[in-house]
Design brief:
FAD/NAD(P)-binding domain; binds flavin-adenine dinucleotide; alpha+beta; 7-stranded mixed sheet
Length: about 475
């Protein structure tokens, strides 16, 4: 099998690479994914949740952050205006395939008022503009994208790429799990977080330079939606940053889901919590994460192992996710089934085990989370209530960051690394945009190659081939 371009991973990064290559009429493109076609995926199967057509985006909340500061590091590669343009055009592609029109968070007087109130509470407010697709609409958008690629790009699901093949500093193709070799001029690796350890191993064997990223550890907070209504009606997803008083650690809110639900996810046998919200189905609660960022230097340089260790401890104590009322945590006692029953906030995740998060988190993290909740209470009274529910643990592992050029090319010629798996992005829009960037670079190189091949052909046919020097 010979192809011009191979894409590893059918998540947003891989899909947007394919859509852009198709738009530039690049032929002989194939996408491989170890997971299944969208209609064969089930959100109740841990493997399916992250793998297959749509990648982790398929069951995501579908919040597109149209912001240069959030969702990835593309600003390290592009000029701010260029990045804004790419993010906007990538967002337009989502709309073209069915994402709703509505945008939240335009810089209005109300947003500025929230920013002022946040600063009085000791919080930094990062304004973001968000389009909310909603979990159920994500499926529709992804189906439309799949259809648009019919006849233009080959898609092979349930097909794992085992390794990347390089020769003399240039990519030559990939080896599949069944041993088959597929040759190509270009390879784009877009394996997502689920393929991060595969990417790390491949980077090591190809001698690519990587940098370790911080690990973000914390809780998912759930409370009655009315408490945050004033803020979420205006900004949808307030990004708030706080530096903890005791440790001066960076603490932030993440992934706000107004009227949403708390969920668990499983990655490599570890159960962690997350949250999402539907465009139509509404609960009475809002949820968001409070995450504490930790970076390690010497001699320990494995933040992922640290995060997994804490998550595993929660799983050991709770058999999965743990739920605790803030009131119980502050009173130094575990939550029990009875205490959760008395809680005015009704949990949306019923299968979490009532327990004690103080057995799970290091003092440093717990203290920072409590101080952040106190600061948030000054912005939105009611957050620091004893009826606020905390679920643990939420961990955000970020892949080791692979060194790439502005075009997302690694130091192996024609091998590009994009999306969350390459540690370059952390969200849907920037992951998709990284695919657009790589695909545009490849399309322009292919056009250049075709032009020069034509010139050589013409020169040859007219007897104009230059004579070797005497
Ligand atoms: C529950 C949840 C909610 C989220 N909500 C949001 C949100 O609201 N907004 C937001 O911006 N982001 C959200 N995210 C994050 C977002 O989904 C990711 O940032 C995005 O999907 C990353 O895209 P990607 O293409 O880089 O990787 P992924 O989407 O992870 O796709 C990678 C694909 O590569 C495949 N793959 C990996 N290795 C191989 C291999 N060796 N061979 C073949 N295939 C392979 C995988 O099977 C997978 O399908 C959410 C994530 C989760 C889990």
């Amino acid at each position: 099998m010979d192809y011009r371009v191979i894409i590893v991973g059918c998540g947003p990064a891989g899909i947007f690479t394919a859509l852009t290559l198709a738009e530039h009429d690049v032929d002989r493109v194939i996408l491989f994914d170890q997971g299944n076609e969208l209609e064969k995926r089930s959100r109740h199967d841990a493997k399916d949740v992250l793998c297959g057509w749509g990648g982790a985006g398929a069951y995501s909340d579908g919040k597109l952050n149209i912001s240069t500061e959030v969702g990835g590091y593309l600003l390290d590669f592009l000029d701010k205006n260029d990045l804004i343009n790419i993010l906007k055009s990538t967002d337009e592609i989502f709309v073209k395939y069915g994402a709703p029109d509505r945008i939240f968070g335009d810089l209005t007087t109300s947003v500025e008022e929230i920013a002022d109130q946040a600063s009085l509470a000791g919080l930094e407010f990062i304004p973001t503009v968000i389009r909310h697709i909603g979990t159920e609409n994500c499926q529709r958008v992804l189906r439309h994208m799949r259809k648009a690629l019919d006849g233009k790009v080959e898609v092979k699901t349930c097909c794992q790429v085992k390794s990347l093949i390089e020769e003399g500093g240039q990519i030559k193709g990939v080896k599949l799990a069944d041993g088959q070799i597929v040759n190509s001029n270009y390879v784009i690796a877009a394996p997502g977080r689920v393929g991060a350890s595969w990417m790390k191993d491949e980077a090591e064997s190809l001698g690519l330079t990587t940098k370790s990223s911080p690990v973000d550890i914390g809780v998912r907070v759930e409370l009655p939606a009315t408490i945050l209504k004033k803020i979420t009606d205006v900004t949808y997803e307030p990004k708030l940053i706080f530096y903890s008083k005791t440790f001066d650690d960076k603490v932030r809110t993440f992934c706000m889901n107004p009227y949403g639900e708390v969920v668990t996810e499983e990655n490599d046998g570890i159960i962690t919590v997350n949250g999402h919200s539907y465009a139509k189905r509404k609960s009475n609660n809002s949820n968001f994460a409070i995450l504490v960022s930790s970076t390690f230097t010497e001699p320990f340089r494995d933040p992922i192992a640290y995060g997994r260790y804490i998550a595993r401890l929660a799983n050991l104590l709770g058999g999965g996710a743990i739920i605790q009322r803030l009131g119980d945590l502050l009173a130094g006692r575990r939550s029990t089934g009875d205490r959760i029953d008395h809680c005015l906030t009704r949990p949306t995740l019923m299968k979490a085990t009532p327990g004690d998060l103080s057995f799970v988190f290091p003092y440093r993290h717990l203290q920072s989370i409590i101080e952040m909740l106190q600061a948030l209470d000054r912005l939105a009274p009611g957050v620091y209530s004893r009826h606020t529910l905390l679920y643990g643990v939420e961990v955000k592992f970020y892949s080791n960051r692979i060194e790439v050029s502005q075009e997302m090319e690694t130091k192996v010629k024609n091998l590009f690394a994009i999306g969350d798996g390459a540690g370059i992005t952390r969200g849907l829009l920037q992951a998709s945009a990284s695919g657009v960037i790589a695909a545009r670079a490849i399309a322009s190189r292919i056009k250049g190659e075709q032009k020069s091949a034509k010139r050589v052909g013409k020169a040859g046919s007219q007897g104009m081939v230059r004579k070797p020097a005497q």
